[in-house]
Write a structure and sequence with these properties.
- The protein is mainly alpha-helical.
- It has a domain of 131 residues.
- α9 runs antiparallel to α10 and α12 packs antiparallel against α13.
Length: 282
């Protein structure tokens, strides 16, 4: 039987058979890989809600399973970040992503159960004590889901105040292994450092270094890092030459790279939008 069909069959059986969460991790990983390697975002967008409901049902049966919770947070964060533009819906979905992300790291490391409320100095101290690369998936998923939640709640200053905590998590990921998840911690840190203009404390040159390091780690295959360099750095410092050169490179690239195909196709869509608006911007 085809491996993907077998994985889907396992998932369907588990939805109606309580207590089989231990069989699910491999199936969910297969589904995640299939999503990341798909080259049609519209197909993924249409199919994703079924996967989200599936993971909800499994978490309902195994609410203390840290890996299921982590996968749920990752799927909800990715779906919300890539596809949801309606503000209220994005808020609801990001809240579930962030909830699962917090629950996952709490089940994995109980000293991090109160990541939002503990004093920042204590939070930073607990992160500094982490020294195991096994922590990386939980830290990265927490950061991703938290950032998506902050973005969808950007009208709330209490949410914006959480940004230093996400930056501290990403810095911890870099300390443990900067190449984890293809160097995406560099990508997210670069974006964080360009949220404000230089006059208000932004650090565009630090951001550029992060974007370029993410590109280097991926061997130049992560087109999202290149688009971020153009949109978040080149536009911020009004470097039209860099902006256009990077976007042209993105549009000329083959997006089909294992583990990056979906995000690369989305990056190319964004590159076309930025390119079309460049004359007005600059």
């Amino acid at each position: 039987m085809n491996r993907k069909i077998f994985s889907l069959a396992v998932v369907l059986i588990c939805i109606i058979a309580p207590g089989c969460a231990s069989l699910v991790s491999g199936a969910a990983d297969d589904l995640s890989r299939a999503i990341l390697n798909h080259d049609d975002p519209a197909t993924v967008e249409a199919a994703a809600p079924a996967y989200l409901l599936m993971i909800d049902s499994l978490i309902g049966e195994e609410a203390d399973d840290e890996e299921l919770l982590r996968q749920g947070a990752a799927l909800y964060a990715a779906y919300t970040g890539l596809f949801i533009e309606d503000g209220e819906r994005a808020k609801r979905l990001s809240e579930r992503a962030f909830l699962y992300g917090r629950q996952a790291i709490c089940e994995y490391e109980d000293e991090l159960c109160d990541v939002r409320r503990m004093p920042f100095a204590e939070f930073d101290e607990k992160l500094a004590a982490l020294d195991d690369t096994d922590d990386l998936p939980y830290l990265m998923t927490l950061a991703q889901s938290w950032l998506v939640w902050i973005r969808t709640h950007s009208d709330d200053w209490n949410a914006i105040a959480d940004l230093p905590r996400t930056e501290a998590i990403l810095a911890t990921v870099l300390r443990l292994d900067e190449t984890f998840d293809g160097g995406n911690a560099h990508l997210y840190l670069g974006i964080l450092k360009t949220l404000r203009p230089p006059a208000l404390g932004g650090k565009p040159e630090d951001a550029r270094a992060h974007f370029e390091r993410a590109m280097e780690i991926s061997g130049g295959h992560n087109l999202g890092a290149k688009v971020a360099l153009a949109e978040n750095y080149a536009r911020l410092v009004f470097d039209r030459e860099l902006h256009d050169r990077v976007l042209n490179d993105v549009l000329a690239a083959d997006p089909r790279v294992r583990g990056l195909t979906l995000t690369n196709v989305v990056a190319q869509q964004r590159a076309r939008t930025l390119q079309a608006a460049a004359d007005d911007y600059f």
